Amino acid sequence: MTGTSSGPVRWLVTGAAGMLGQDLLTVLAGDPAAEVTALGRADLDITDAAAVLAAVEGHHVVVNCAAWTNVDGAETAEEAATAVNGTGVRHLAAACAKTGARLLQVSTDYVLPGDATEPYAETAPTGPVNAYGRGKLVGEQAVAELLPEHGYVVRTAWLYGEHGKNFVATMLRLAAQRDSLDVVDDQQGQPTWSLALARQLVALGLAALAGQAPAGVYHGTGSGRTTWYGLAREAYRLSGLDPERIRPTTSAAYVTPAVRPAFSVLGHDRWADAGLSPLPDWREQLAEALATPVFAELGSVARSTESDRSQ
């Protein structure tokens, strides 16, 4: 990694205390040419336009990980969710337009209708089925409108990592508490390790700064596809647990306030335009993730309890 012609690359990471934000800081810490400003929610309210402009000033690349992430909660607080995921993103895009910074906006598969049978292209028509998706789409539209040359939307899905609540960690914790688990097998998607996505975002930011990546939408999800049931079984298998403890069920058994898309498989063709490869296969990412300390410890505890049960 290299800095700009006049010195280091100055990065601003918003939402830096979250799962993806923390992984971004880890990746950037390994780059001697990076100068990083890390702002959590307590440091920057992205719904405050003046504060956003002041924060963006002096940076080359802004990666926005700040978001309202409570999908079900957005159903009864859509205005508040959209203030962060839509209006807040508009403030960031406006600030980047004024200062010349590149903006990488982390978005979601939930902006799509979820009724396809083949992977969604980056150019596929949007059509959110819940309040969270509608708010995130407002943010995407702001980036496209205000930063047609310097705005990048990276949609991700089924994110898991060491630094926050997520499906993989929950499955491993429950393995130490229950004999079996019923997991939904009628939603298809692409599990994505947050550290792998962080690496991809940094690579895209540098390509953008170098003029090598066209602006627009990219899909930052693991390659391949599976279901939540398939992900849970693979996490068990890789952790040395009995995958037969995972049993398939349907979405109808787990009704939630927000509708979830049934099909969240995304295409990855645009990475070639930026000279980058898509994220690796989801199984490859999962294997690497499960070897990291937090997941390894969860797996160890689960194996110990499984062994105790079998005796």
Describe the structure.
With 311 residues, the protein is of the alpha/beta class. It has a domain at 9-166 and 190-224 and 262-280: NAD(P)-binding Rossmann-like Domain (Rossmann fold, 3-Layer(aba) Sandwich). Helices cover 39% and strands 16% of the residues. It has helices at 19-29, 49-56, 78-99, 131-146, 167-175, 194-209, 228-238, 282-290, 293-310; strands at residues 9-14, 34-39, 61-64, 102-108, 151-156, 159-160, 181-184, 188-189, 192-193, 216-219, 226-227, 246-249. It has a six-stranded parallel beta sheet, sandwiched between helices. Strands 6-9 form a two-stranded parallel ribbon. Helix 1 crosses helix 6, helix 3 (78-99) runs parallel beside helix 4 (131-146) and helix 5 (167-175) packs across helix 7. The model has no long low-confidence stretch (mean pLDDT 96).
Helix content: 25-40%
The value of Rg in angstroms is 19 Å
The fold-level CATH name of one domain is: Rossmann fold
> What is the total tally of β strands?
12
Query: Main sheet, how many strands, which sense, barrel?
Result: 6 strands, parallel
Q: Supply the helix-strand structural class.
A: alpha/beta
Strand content: 15-25%
> What does the average pLDDT come to?
96
Shape: globular
CATH class of one domain: Alpha Beta
N- and C-termini, Cα separation: 53 Å
Q: Helical segment tally? A: 9
Strand order of the largest sheet: 2-1-3-4-5-10
**Unreliable spans:** none
CATH superfamily of one domain: NAD(P)-binding Rossmann-like Domain
Order of helices and strands: EHEHEHEHEEHEEEHEEHEHH
CATH architectural name of one domain: 3-Layer(aba) Sandwich
Pfam families: RmlD_sub_bind
Organism: Kitasatospora purpeofusca
Protein name: dTDP-4-dehydrorhamnose reductase
GO molecular function: dTDP-4-dehydrorhamnose reductase activity
